[in-house]
Write a structure and sequence with these properties.
This protein has 347 residues and is an alpha/beta fold. 38% of the residues lie in helices and 29% in strands. It contains twelve helices and 15 strands. The N and C termini lie far apart (95 Å).
């Protein structure tokens, strides 16, 4: 190796942000392995690279002893004092043993180490960028589909949308651009793995933050979300400003804001309801679009009996119990729904 190599490392340090010293350390470790592989694995060796001119030197590390039992690891005290009369028994001596053709091996090893270090550094940069974006929304292009996993081009890297995070019934085609929720970023031996989601409630939350300036600015807050992806979502909102209607802000002029989100979610129904400190009022609102006559709340076991008009019972419960289920998830209360006539009959 030579001065040009040192200059090349300086360029890499500037462009890729990889410390020159990190490469030197990795290279010295790799060259120890190369030496042992090519010239003898039993020796205890050390490799040093001159940081100025790139010269590579290999040293055998030997312990000074009275009587040599293993010449690869030990040196006689008399021989040691022939090198320097200050040596004592137990000292470690470095004796240069650089092979003639070691420069060629060093050059090949250097190339491999540098390429690997650049790859590792680039992976670290991507990991650092995406680990800070967990729970955010990202737009990507579908690259390929393999074993039900959808691989999405995110620009600098690729993310995966696993079957568990897909919306049931949603069709994914190569080349489609879609919005996704960054669920998790993992560090693996092959680089960062970015797990994406289309079914997470966080996706709906982030879509509303993008579409509704009042949410982005913090005037309107999302209190809770319950979602059955691809079918229906309930969103509880409240306003910090009495002059701002939270539901109106989320729906937008002629429904434009909520319509854009419904389109992004391929027709998923979205109920926007007002959160209230009064739990009975909040539970009544959560069963939207059904009307509610009364709510009897039991604070102790967080359960509520809800009475609805007879003709609204099936609407309140919803198809296969979905409306009631989402309302219970949204409020975090157990909800028992009865029609007016059922309730009156029990009195």
């Amino acid at each position: 190796m030579n001065v040009e190599f040192i200059e090349a490392l300086e360029e890499i340090e500037k462009e890729k942000g990889i410390s020159k010293e990190v490469i030197f350390d990795a290279l010295e470790s790799a060259l120890i392995s190369s030496y042992k592989k090519n010239f003898g694995s039993s020796q205890n060796v050390e490799v040093e690279i001159d940081r100025v001119n790139g010269k590579v030197s290999v040293y055998a590390k030997k312990t000074v002893v009275d009587e040599v039992e293993d010449s690869l690891l030990e040196i006689d005290i008399e021989e040691a004092r022939g090198i320097d009369d200050k040596y004592q028994v137990g000292d470690i001596i470095n004796i240069e043993i650089t092979p003639k053709n070691f420069g060629r091996i060093a050059a090949q090893t250097a190339k491999q180490v540098v390429i690997q270090r650049i790859k590792d550094a680039e992976r670290d940069v991507i990991y650092d960028e995406f680990i800070n974006r967990e729970n955010e929304i990202i737009t990507g292009m579908i690259q390929r589909i393999s074993k039900n996993n959808v691989y999405v081009d995110l620009g600098k890297t690729e993310g995966v949308l696993p079957p568990t995070e897909q919306i049931e019934g949603e069709v994914y085609n190569q080349g489609d651009r879609i919005k996704l929720f960054i669920l998790e970023v993992k560090k693996t031996t092959k680089g960062p793995q970015i797990i994406l989601s289309r079914s997470h409630p966080g996706l709906v939350k982030r879509l509303f933050e993008l579409e509704v300036p009042e949410i982005h600015e913090g005037v309107v807050d999302i209190y809770a979300i319950s979602r059955e992806a691809g079918s229906r979502t309930k969103l509880a909102v409240f306003s910090k400003d009495s002059n701002v209607d939270p539901v109106g802000a989320c729906v937008g002029f002629k429904g434009s804001r909520v319509k854009a989100i419904v389109e992004e979610l391929n027709g998923e129904k979205i109920d926007i309801i007002i959160w209230s400190k009064n739990i009975e009022e909040f539970i009544a609102n959560s069963l939207s679009p059904s009307k509610v006559i009364k709510v009897e709340a039991n604070e102790k076991d967080k359960s509520a009996l809800v009475v609805v008009p007879d003709y609204q019972l099936s609407l309140a419960i919803g198809k296969e119990g979905q409306n009631a289920r989402l309302a219970a998830k949204l409020t975090n209360w157990k909800i028992d729904i009865k029609s007016e006539s059922q309730y009156d009959g029990e009195l």
